[in-house]
Known about the structure:
- The chain is of the alpha+beta class.
- The chain folds into 2 domains: 1-93, Up-down Bundle (Substrate Binding Domain Of Dnak, Chain:A, Domain 2), CATH 1.20.1270; 109-193 and 203-217.
- It is built from 5 helices and 7 strands.
- Strands 2, 3, 4, 6 and 7 form a 5-stranded antiparallel beta sheet that branches.
- Strand 2 (125-134) and strand 3 (139-140) form a beta hairpin.
- The longest helix is centred in the middle third of the chain and has 24 residues, at 68-91.
- It comes from Pelecanoides urinatrix (Common diving petrel).
- Residues 2-202 form the Dedicator of cytokinesis N-terminal domain.
- InterPro entries: DOCK, DOCK_N, DOCK_N_sub1.
- One of its GO terms (molecular function) is guanyl-nucleotide exchange factor activity.
- This is DOCK2 protein.
Amino acid sequence: RFQQVQSMMYDLMEWRSQLLSGTLPKDELKELKQKVTSKIDYGNKILELDLIVRDEDGNILDPDKTSVISLFHAHEEATNKITERIKEEMSKDQPDYASYSRMSSSPTHSLYVFVRNFVCRIGEDAELFMSLYDPQKLTIISENYLVRWGSRGFPKEIDMLNNLKVVFTDLGNKDLSRDKIYLVCQIVRVGRMDLKDSNSKKYTQGLRRPFGVAGNCA
């Protein structure tokens, strides 16, 4: 049973990386989500945990918003699917260390970034959005890391000084094989409509305006 759960966890980790990559087409994304939920339900069954019923998109059904009859049919359908899945798994003859080979063939990597300082004369508050960027495909391949920087040259949350750290995770061999990956910082100014405005009665504060961008090969 331990080897079964270990193999399933390796599968889920690999599929999670694919889901977070943001590169899958819509139809493949839906198919992969169904595989993930099916694997989770199967794991709960062999571990003798509670059965979770879901809708067609893999979302957990809310018992407060679903009728008793609909929940019964969903339980019945889920039980049949899991029973068929168990029969399929029992009929397979996989080598004991197949999970290790799958894991080694698709390892994940991470990029650790420590923001020490931000030097740019703006005169107002700023928001820094940091992300990983593929210059060949002209696309961002990670989520944004947000840092709010004050007009006095310090983070808005002063307790975060010297503690602005982020780890970009789930980078696979496909990402490492890219020709170049840039760490891009987009700067957004937060304040007046125009920096030249001086009369407080004539301008509006709190407006967000693109100010600049910086990048470095990661």
